[in-house]
Amino acid sequence: MSETRVRNAAAEDALDAQIGYNLRRASALALNDFSVEMAETSLRPVTYAMLALIDERPGVRAAELCRLLGMKSANMAPLLGELEERGLIARDDHAEDKRVQELNLTESAKAAMPAWRRKVRRHEERFLQRLSRNERATLLRLLRLIWVDEAE
Amino acid sequence: MSETRVRNAAAEDALDAQIGYNLRRASALALNDFSVEMAETSLRPVTYAMLALIDERPGVRAAELCRLLGMKSANMAPLLGELEERGLIARDDHAEDKRVQELNLTESAKAAMPAWRRKVRRHEERFLQRLSRNERATLLRLLRLIWVDEAE
DNA sequence: TATTGTTATACTCTATAACTATA
DNA sequence: TATAGTTATAGAGTATAACAATA
Q1: Residue B108 burial (CB < 10 Å; 0-12/13-18/19+)?
Q2: Tens place of pLDDT for every residue, chain A, 152 residues?
Q3: Does A3-151 carry CATH code 1.10.10.10?
Q4: Nearest CA-CA distance, residue B70 and chain A, Å
């Protein structure tokens, strides 16, 4: 059996050589590490992402948040309810279009956000410790080539 | 406001600059594309990964398969049952240790595997179309730096 | 005592469909 | 008709705990 074959599969077809599989494993590890670092905040990756984006785009519409995060509004609704109940966001009525909700962080969430961002930075530092600064920049660029829509 | 800031967050802390977030988005896109390509085979990423590894390591123990795929045996058990019912794998008794199951592909699965691997290659080709050959190799290396245990 | 494998169960994420209100 | 948002529900992935059989 040649070196270019992994048992029964050509090396290029081996599971370990598949980028999709390695994306899933790396993502699972990152998810896990995130929940360890953020446990005390009761924020999950999705809820943190929502807060971070609302922080970066005050007044963003719920539908726009769905689009930006690649979520269905049916799945977003209960999460917005959760964040509102916890006093982290406000759903404000749009002036002209009564269908629209404008999302904003509460003062309490605004105050907490810098510390949460620092925690996330520590989490990234930990699960990326084997990558150099340059490698991290490269990885970021390549990941965005995969999923970011060219049209945007 | 300086160019180095994304609204309220320093650029390095912006959601879009987080590798964990981008891993999750890229992985979700890959998952989605996988299920489109593999729909007619009724194989999901997990079940395909199990078959591919059993193909690459005939006779692998169930516990070893769990370890290699990062799964809990409690979650593996029903999937092995599914694959056995579909006539794709056999769970053979170990000669010396009666607790152990040795996993093998059936003849029918062995015959189908090359076509399934080709379909997965097409899927990878599609969701990675914006990455060059070199970039794909780099991405693979960086992803494995994140999740593959140094001890192995 | 530890390991292999199973069952039961709960939680999160995601997908679809049906719905209300508004444009 | 189309869009914004909600509710209900089902499927898949993953986590823990309790268990039986074997080492």
Answers
A1: exposed
A2: 455 667 677 778 899 999 999 999 999 999 999 999 999 999 999 999 999 999 999 999 999 999 999 999 999 999 999 999 999 999 999 989 999 999 999 999 999 999 999 999 999 999 999 999 999 999 999 999 999 987 76
A3: yes
A4: 8
Paired strand residues for B148: none
CA-nearest of B31, B32, B24 to A46 is B24
Cβ within 8 Å of residue A114, ≥6 positions away: none
DSSP for A117-139, written as a single string:
HHHHHHHHHHHTTTS-HHHHHHH
Give the global pTM: 0.94
Closest Cα to residue B47, out of B20, B24, B78, B22?
B78
Q: Does A146 touch chain B (CB under 8 A)?
A: yes
Give the number of other Cβ atoms within 10 Å of residue B61's Cβ: 16
CB A142 to CB B123 under 8 A?
A: no
